[in-house]
Design goal:
By secondary structure, this protein is α+β, with helices and mostly antiparallel strands. Helix content is 44%, strand content 16%. It is built from 4 helices and 3 strands. It has a 3-stranded antiparallel sheet with strand order 1-2-3, with helices on one face. Strand 1 and strand 2 form a beta hairpin. Helix 3 (100-114) packs across helix 4. The N and C termini lie far apart (68 Å).
Length: 153
Amino acid sequence: MSGKTKIVVLKMKELIYTGILLVLGILAIIFLIIMSGEKEEGQPEEATDSASVYVPGTYTTAMTLNGSNVELSVTVDETAILSIDLQNMDESVSVMYPLMEPALESLSTQILENQSIDNIEYSSDNLYTSTVLLNAITSALNQAKIEEPERLD
């Protein structure tokens, strides 16, 4: 046996600092593993409220009537349809299509009340006009809807 014995002297302060740094390092590694695990599960980075149906804003659909462009705008918030309006409607279009505004008023009242375009009633007098308006409203609402990510289950 070799007769040289070594004695190591450690100061208490150095042991405490080393222990604290070791614990912080382990916590940082655990935190990184947890955060990277969430992305791998396919969760979107931008979490949306499950009750949200629409992206808030005003969405327009262009219609051409009698050679003039008319825009139908639908305003929504996250969960509800707020208003439905015609914009840029020329006087000539309102003369050529006198049922346009009353039909839109009837449709928008029902849609705002029900918050849906399902089971909408309109008279046979306004069949064509109501159908054109309902298609434009449906198009605007489809623009506003939040797209659901496809799942590969």
